[in-house]
Amino acid sequence: MSLVAYKEFARRSYGSLQRPRYDVISKRLEKDPYRDLLEELERLGEVEDVTDLNCDVAFAWKIRSGEFGVVARLSVVGPYAAVFRLHADGYETGESVTEGSWGEQDRRVIAAIEGAGFRILGSEELEQRMKINFPECDKSASIYQIFFSGE
Q: Residue 45, Cβ neighbours under 10 Å: how many?
C-alpha cells in the first residue's frame, strides 16, 4: 500500500500531520469499537488485554491456544492491524504473521481480524516512515508508531 493511503487515515484521525491531536482518537478507544471482534477471538483462544495504558491509538491483545500464541495490535487510526508471533515463554517476538508459515490456529485468528475489516501490515510496511510532527520523532515516524503507538 502506498504512503498516500496511510497519510489520509493519519490526517483524518490526528486532524493534522503538523500538529497531531489525540482527543478524537481517545474518544474512539473509550467506545470499545472492537467488542465484536474481541468476542470472536475469545472463541479461538484465551485473550488477554495487553494494551499499554499510555497508548492512545490502538488496542493490543495476546491470543493463546495451547502452543499457539500471537499479539494482535488493532489501530483506531486506520483499518490496520499488526499481528506478531508469541515466543513459547510469552513474549512478543516481532515476527509478523505475514512472514513465514503458520498453523491452522494462526489462520483462524488472521481470518477473524481480516473479516472485521482490518488489513494486517507486515514488517516492511510497518517500518516505512512518513512526515508527522510527533514530539519525540523529529518530524517523521514509522507507520508502526503512527498507527500502533502514537509516539
A: 18
Domain regions of the chain by residue span: 3-149
Q: What CA–CA distance (Å, rounded) separates 83 from 27?
A: 24
Residues 104/89, Cβ–Cβ less than 8 Å: no
87-118 confidence digits (pLDDT tens): 878 888 888 887 766 777 778 899 999 999 99
Number of H helices, E strands in the chain: 6, 8
Please indicate, yes or no, whether the overall pTM of this predicted structure exceeds 0.90.
no
For residue 82, give the nearest of 146, 33, 148 by alpha carbon: 148
**CA–CA distance, 47 with 100 (Å, rounded to integer):** 23
Helix axis angle, 104-115 to 35-44, nearest 10°:
170
Q: Which residue has the cell 483462524?
A: 108
Bridge partners for 147 per DSSP: none
